[in-house]
Amino acid sequence: MIVLLICFVFIDVLQIVICPEGKDTKIVGGKGVKDIRQMPWLVNIEMKYVGHICGGSILTPVFVLTACHCLVLQVSQDKTPSKTISADELVFISGTLFAEKRDNNDPNQQIRDAKYLLVHPQCRDENKIQVFDYGLGVLKSPFSFNAYVNAFKLLSMNKTIFQNKFDTIVKNPKAKCYVAGWGEVRRGEFGIDDEGRMSKHLRIMEMHLISDDQCRQKFGQISPKFLNFNFRNHNQICAVGSKMWGSDCQGDSGGPIVCEGFQIALVSYGFQCGISSPATYADLVPFVEWFSTKVLSYVHSRKTSTAPHGRMRLSALNCYVLIHLMIVAVSYDAG
Ligand SMILES: *[C@@H]1O[C@H](CO)[C@@H](O)[C@H](O)[C@H]1NC(C)=O
């Protein structure tokens, strides 16, 4: 059975279902990062009491970019916007190579709570394909920038300029790209078993962008609906590990793909860990448009509003686990 990976809650389950035995890292075939100063924009997003769920990247001291599917329980399947989980459930950690904060005495680590979470209004599961997979954590207090914690480089905040620069990079067959992430942290049952929880070291994988045709062909072998899927029209690009045997994997969702020093997209979905199966990335063109036309004014209006913000708690952790199991149960055969 092939399972489409659109929800971070699958992380543990999928690791068991899909990844080759003994491979417990999500970036399969990658190598360890020696110093977080190589990529000070990397953010580890943890769910309180559960642990690492997704990667993210620092846009500004208060905005963390990640995938929409990292911030919702279930991606909307119709025109209604996807609903985020409660910001209280998450912590955002920067400045460290290690994923589990409780094992970590790293003096450069910075831990922040989110004030609220935002997802792209068109973030949805469109005929079982994740689209507009953009989300933002808006932090209660800003990260302090230094050599260990800093913003990623964005091609432009202007959509047109971004698109032009993006096209140049994507057309360049020599473009140097990589993904980075912590991948799987927990191997216990559905993440609630303490056994096997350990510090995971940030890993990096060199990636090679592939054409839409190649991606259609590769994904089409897994699910025929991809044979006619227009990745470009959906602002998606595909990449494979540059050695053709590694790739990022689901636990790296939300993390950046960096080409020529700039983050051009984020990890959205894929089918298999490693073994030359491509992964799909949501390019940042729609994000830049959403951010500059909607997000900034929304954030500003919230700041100037005197209305108190309700503190919604969606549910207790037990309830999460239950709902997660239900979502796992609706994973489907894509063939
Ligand atoms: C974006 O850049 C283009 C090309 O330089 C320019 O024409 C346009 O006015 C810019 N848009 C905004 C919103 O600044």
From TrEMBL:
Give the record's GO biological process terms: proteolysis
Query: Sorted alphabetically, which CDD domains does this protein's record hold?
Result: Tryp_SPc
Q: Which PANTHER family match?
A: TRYPTASE-RELATED
Task: Keywords in alphabetical order, please.
Answer: Disulfide bond, Signal
Q: Which PROSITE patterns match?
A: TRYPSIN_DOM (PS50240)
* Classification via InterPro entries: Peptidase_S1_PA (IPR009003), Peptidase_S1_PA_chymotrypsin (IPR043504), Peptidase_S1A (IPR001314), Ser/Thr_Proteases_Immune/Dev (IPR051487), Trypsin_dom (IPR001254)
Identify the domain of life.
Eukaryota
Q: Where is the Peptidase S1 domain?
A: 27-296
Q: Record's Pfam families?
A: Trypsin (PF00089)
List the GO molecular function terms: serine-type endopeptidase activity
**Protein name, per record:** Peptidase S1 domain-containing protein
Which residue ranges run through the membrane? none
Hey, which family's this protein in? Belongs to the peptidase S1 family. CLIP subfamily.
Extent of the signal sequence: 1-15
Does this UniProt record's set of keywords contain Disulfide bond? yes
